[in-house]
Q: What sequence folds into this?
């Protein structure tokens, strides 16, 4: 079903401050930065040892990431997994009783299809499915 880890996303108050740690001190390689108006956030994609990390900074406190920071503070926001047939996976997971945030895929930050599973179905872990 799952083809591997797509990325680990970390909610941060400031991407610039977070890059001082992840890029400057820990040696992660910055791949790109962008603003995603539709999700009301800024993002930076980093790579280390073949694993991608996504830093997420909210554009406002009412965004999903803004609310996450207010409630939980900085830290891991979600884990993203590669899938090949996202619609089929969502249907299969729904039949198994997995709660879905997204019943149908939407367009993600890099233009591919994504969907989120409710953290209540994964022991508190927000899981993103990424096709492609």
A:
């Amino acid at each position: 079903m799952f083809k591997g880890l797509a990325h680990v996303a970390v909610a941060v108050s400031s991407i610039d401050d977070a890059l001082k740690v992840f890029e400057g001190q820990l040696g992660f390689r910055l791949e790109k930065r962008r603003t995603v108006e539709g999700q009301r956030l800024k993002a930076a994609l980093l790579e280390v040892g073949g694993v991608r990390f996504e830093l997420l900074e909210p554009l406002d406190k009412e965004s999903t990431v803004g609310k996450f920071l207010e409630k939980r503070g900085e830290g891991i926001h979600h884990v993203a997994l590669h899938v090949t047939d996202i619609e089929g996976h969502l249907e299969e997971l729904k039949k198994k009783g997995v709660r879905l945030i997204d019943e149908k895929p939407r367009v993600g930050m890099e233009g591919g299809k994504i969907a989120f599973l409710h953290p209540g179905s994964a022991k508190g872990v927000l899981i993103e499915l990424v096709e492609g």
Q: What stands out?
A: The domain at 4-131 is CATH 3.10.180.10 (2,3-Dihydroxybiphenyl 1,2-Dioxygenase; domain 1). The CA atoms of residues 1 and 83 lie 7 Å apart. Strands lie at 4-11, 29-36, 41-48, 51-58, 75-83, 106-107, 113-117, 127-131. Helices lie at 15-25, 64-72, 86-95.
